[in-house]
Design goal:
The protein contains 10 helices and 34 strands. The strands form 4 sheets. It has a 16-stranded antiparallel beta sheet that branches. Strands 11, 12, 13, 14, 15, 16, 25, 28, 31 and 32 form a 10-stranded antiparallel beta sheet that branches. A 5-stranded antiparallel beta sheet has the order 6-7-8-9-10, with helices on one face. Strand 11 (313-316) and strand 12 form a beta hairpin. By secondary structure, it is mainly beta. Its EC number is 1.4.3.-. The chain crosses the membrane at residues 7-26. Residues 305-707 form the Copper amine oxidase catalytic domain. Its cofactor is Cu cation.
Length: 753
């Protein structure tokens, strides 16, 4: 053998390795960027038509404010500085036109309804202080205003029902720190190490026990990150019913299981040594155990989704188009995310789908906790919609939409990226079958759906609101709860009302209820409500009469009245309940959309409670009523501060009217019980804390519409399933081997706070 041959082979191998390495490196260096292809979105509907539902622009809000300032004949104080005895604009929102007007415009070629705003004003500087609601229009150049308060609520709205402005809470904070606390300097200094900056207050609602009360427990916490789980044992009851701030007073004080007449009595008892003191260890500014700062070093990045050829949906002003779906979206200052004119394959299936309310009822052996019943709509689910963090709150490459609101101010506020829209590959098949009998084939469809999302942060809780659109014609409404648990100071028999989360922290038991309005228009405005279910019947086997068979059979019932269509929380509801159209599909069945609820709700509150009627929507997992313009919402923002004489009582909507072949609305309630536990520290996760509903086509189509999806996969054993023209999945190395363009990370959540 030639002695040089091994060296020649080694040199040749090295050259080959070098060439291959260069090829791989150069190939990696030339990885193409993903490029958007011409949109395949079906052009359904008109952007100009969808604008009939559009939120007010910042300029329109400002126009309304200027008009009111110049035409009401009374001084209006900036709400952020207003005293209870002042007049101010509490909020300005769009006034959605009446449904009949909108449908004449959308479907009948009628005139566009005038664009109007709804302005809520607090008149504290009047002989009879009151809340007044005005419709202002036409926009963008207002020329008239109408007082619609009596029309909407059947009478004037008393001033004590007003939702609390931020300015009033600021005045209450100043009162507590400068007047109330001044009466107990020794106790505060020695027990709380109070320095004027190291405590935070959390409000409770409702304010008292009867109509007219405005008396509030304020729970004191350490002023650290995640303060909601750092109670110090002190709670103060403030009577702020007077419109004169100088007349506000402390009504009661609670500390570590004992009640005192006021802060002076607490101070006296402490100085005399008659108090059982539980001194709480001072937490670091980051909250220590409540800090959300990661406790592990960064590792490999988490998986991300991208669209190899760009988004397959479009967002044009307030309209979204996706795979045969189209809808208009908006953000109500009080109720948050809402959709209008929802269509599939060009046909309207829902006129409105909207959040109505989020309710929490707490238990505790501390006064603040045991008296808390939060109706978050009164604080503002839209007002407290928070800016979204790309990559966590929504996929990094989602489409982010800015929203505007005007509340507690004379100037509109812009919330950057407070709503997101994205297509989501759920990582599972929407449908599939692998056949290994008779013929050999595989058929399937990836479950890729469109999501529109907002997240409202109301105090300690964060609510993730989703509406999801599937390729089979189904719509899902879902809410996930996260944020911090509310807590009380652990003392006495506290463990009857929750679990211990830290040394002095009791995670307090509470319910969560969420209410939605679903105005389905299935095959037209007029629908009926039909229930299908199953029952077993006993029969003899025809081929063997001596044998008996228990066979399921279909049961059918038309629910004729509102009373029949009101299903209490714990009652048995038909498993298939649907809005039926006056038309039939190819197979002779009434076309319909089924309502399917995912909920773990228990009792909302005993009906004997003096405040139950204010939240009577929560009696029902589902209630279907005739649609009425005078019943636009299941509750009112004014119910929170006067639940004993509710401004809107949902139970009164249900009065046994006929609901056959009528324009109907479904009011859906979903909820769960939350008993905070140690894994809620540092804060609560979304897993397991998700409820909602599905709207599913039921004989609406002649077959599953997703069979027409461009994403379908089918191949047989006899085909070359590695060929791109046979199997689209085989195309992915070519069509999806690109680098997505990730824009620089930005976040505007801390601006203009």
């Amino acid at each position: 053998m030639n002695p040089k041959l091994p060296y020649v082979l080694l040199v040749g191998a090295a050259v080959i390795i070098f060439i291959l390495s260069c090829m791989l490196l150069s190939r990696g260096g030339r990885s193409p960027s993903c490029e958007s292809q011409p949109s395949v979105v079906e052009k359904t509907g008109s952007v100009s038509q969808s604008l009939v539902f559009a939120d007010l622009t910042a300029e329109e809000m400002s126009q309304v404010v200027r008009y009111l300032q110049g035409h009401l004949g009374v001084p209006l104080v900036e709400a952020s500085r207003a005293k209870p005895s002042d007049n101010c604009i509490a909020s300005v929102d769009v006034q959605v036109p009446a449904k009949a007007e909108v449908l004449r415009f959308l479907d009948g070629g009628g005139a566009r309804p005038p664009r109007e705003a709804l302005a809520v004003l607090y008149f504290g500087n009047q002989p009879e202080p009151n809340i007044t609601e005005y419709v202002v229009g036409p926009l963008p150049a207002p020329a008239y205003h109408r007082d619609v308060t009596v029309q909407r609520y059947g009478g004037k709205v008393p001033y004590h029902r007003r939702p609390t402005l931020g300015s009033e809470y600021e005045q209450l904070r100043v009162f507590l720190e400068t007047k109330a606390f001044a009466a107990a300097p020794t106790f505060l200094r020695e027990v709380l190490e109070y320095d004027g900056t190291n405590v935070a207050f959390q409000t409770t609602v409702p304010h008292g026990f009867q109509s007219g009360d405005r008396v509030t427990w304020f729970v004191v916490f350490q002023n650290v990150s995640g303060f909601f789980v750092h109670p110090v044992g002190l709670e103060v009851l403030v009577d702020h019913s007077s419109l004169d701030v100088s007349q506000w007073a402390v009504s009661r004080v609670f500390y570590n299981g004992q009640y005192y007449r006021d802060m002076a009595q607490l101070e006296s008892a402490y100085v005399q040594g008659r108090i059982s003191v539980e001194k709480v260890r001072k937490a670091a500014w980051d909250g220590d155990f409540s800090s959300m700062k990661p406790r592990a070093p960064r590792a490999a990045p988490f998986p991300v989704q991208f669209e190899p050829q760009g988004p397959r949906y479009s967002v044009r002003k307030n309209q979204v188009l996706f795979q045969g779906w189209s809808f208009a979206f908006g953000m109500s200052v009080s109720t948050g995310l809402r959709l209008f004119d929802v269509r599939h394959k060009g046909e309207r299936v829902a006129y409105e789908i909207s959040v109505q309310e989020a309710l929490s009822v707490y238990g505790s052996n501390c006064p603040g906790g045991m008296s808390t019943r939060y109706m978050d709509g009164s604080f503002g689910l839209g007002r407290y919609t928070s800016p979204l963090v790309p990559g966590v709150d929504c996929p990094y490459l989602a489409t982010y939409v800015d929203t505007h609101s005007l509340s507690d101010s004379l100037r509109p506020r812009k919330r950057k990226a407070s709503l997101c829209i994205f297509e989501h590959n759920l990582g599972s098949p929407l449908r599939r079958h692998y056949s290994n009998l008779q013929s050999l084939y595989y058929g399937g469809l990836v479950n890729s759906a469109l999501v529109i999302r907002s997240i409202a942060t109301v105090g300690n809780y964060d609510y993730v609101w989703d509406f999801i659109f599937y390729q089979n014609g189904a719509i899902e409404g879902k809410v996930q709860a996260t944020g911090y648990p509310s807590s009380s100071f652990l003392h006495g028999d506290g463990l009857r009302y929750g679990n211990r989360l830290w040394e002095h922290t009791l995670g307090t038991i509470h319910t969560q209820f969420f209410n939605y309005k679903v105005d389905l228009d299935v095959g037209g405005v007029k629908n009926s409500l039909v229930a299908h279910d199953m029952a077993f019947e006993m029969t003899r086997a025809p081929w063997s009469p001596e044998q008996q068979i228990e066979r399921p059979r279909l049961t059918k019932k038309v629910l004729d009245t509102e009373d029949q269509a009101a299903f209490r929380l714990q009652s048995k509801m038909p498993r298939y309940i649907y809005f039926a159209a006056n038309s039939k599909n190819k197979w002779g069945h009434q076309r319909g959309y089924r309502i399917q609820i995912t909920s773990f709700a228990g009792d909302h509150i005993p009906e004997a409670s003096s405040m139950e009627r204010a939240i009577s929507w929560a009696r029902y997992q589902l209630a279907v009523t005739r649609r009425k313009e005078e019943e636009p919402t299941s509750t009112s923002v004014y119910n929170q501060n006067d639940p004993w004489t509710p401004t809107v009582t949902f139970a009164d909507f249900i009065n046994n009217e006929t609901i056959t072949n009528e324009d109907l609305v479904a009011w859906i309630t979903a909820g769960f019980l939350h008993i905070p536990h140690s894994e809620d520290i540092p804060n609560t996760v979304t897993v397991g804390n998700s409820v909602g509903f599905l709207l599913r086509p039921y004989n609406y189509y002649d077959l599953d519409p997703s069979i027409y999806s461009h994403d379908g996969v089918f191949f047989t054993s006899e085909q070359d399933f590695t060929a791109c023209e046979i199997n689209p999945l085989a195309c992915l190395p070519k069509t999806a081997s690109c680098l997505p363009n990730f824009p620089p990370f930005t976040y505007d959540g801390f601006r203009n706070m």
